[in-house]
Amino acid sequence: MFGLRRSLTLLKELPVRSLPRKRLHSTLAEDVRSHSTFHIPIIDFSAFRANTALSEKRRVADDIVNGFKEAGFVYLSGHGIPGDVIDNVHKKVRRWQVLPASIRSDQVAWDDPRANRGYVKVGRERVTQSSDAAEIAALRTNAPDMKETMEIGRDWDLVWRNKWPKEVDSPGYKQTMLQFFQVGHR
Fold first, then answer.
1. Which segments of the protein form a coiled coil according to its record (predicted)?
2. I need a surface site. Which of 27, 118, 121, 134 has the fewest CB within 10 A?
């Protein structure tokens, strides 16, 4: 959930500071090599939403991809998701985080990497692209992935089903997350 909370924080409307366009492209890789120059790019998604020209949409999409490749994160402004929707998601996430581990881990645990659905506890995911089991185990021990997430996808997918806590355990959680998922696709 911490991963979701951090991601949602990035979705809040941010003031768009004036950055030269080139800093949002491949030259960002030069900046992230040093702690003193590291920054997370701010990308104004309204340019994607407002434009009909494929070239402009592609430029914004490239900025996002480059930000993830080079810094690992982006701040997305101008996304159009209403603040009250984001606030409601934050509220449900905070309630989810205090549920007992038996509910989070046992009832809705992520169990199939192909599905990518459900609760992922701290240290579960790997921090490498390696497929060597021994290397992955060593990395999980020495440098575990410290994020905790609850991952969902299309709720109508009949093959890869979402996993939800029982309504009695987390009232309104499913409805809130599905609403947020839908709003993000507009």
1. none
2. 134
Q: Could you tell me where the DSSP H helices lie in the chain?
A: 2-11, 28-31, 46-50, 54-70, 83-97, 101, 108, 133-142, 173-184
With a CB cutoff of 8 Å and minimum separation 6, the contacts of 144 are: 122, 123, 127
Rounded to an integer, what distance in angstroms lies between the CA atom of residue 61 and that of residue 49?
11
Whether residue 94 sits in one domain with residue 172: yes
Instruction: Examine residue 121 and state whether it is found in any structural domain, yes or no.
Output: yes
Structural domain contains residue 143: yes
Range of the domain at 68: 17-77
pTM: 0.67
> What is the tens place of the pLDDT at every residue in 17-60?
434 444 444 344 444 455 677 889 999 999 999 988 999 999 99
Which tokens in the block code for residue 153? 């996808």
What is the helix (H) or strand (E) element at residue 178, kind and residue range? helix 173-184
Task: Tell me the C-alpha distance between 153 and 137, whole Å.
Answer: 27
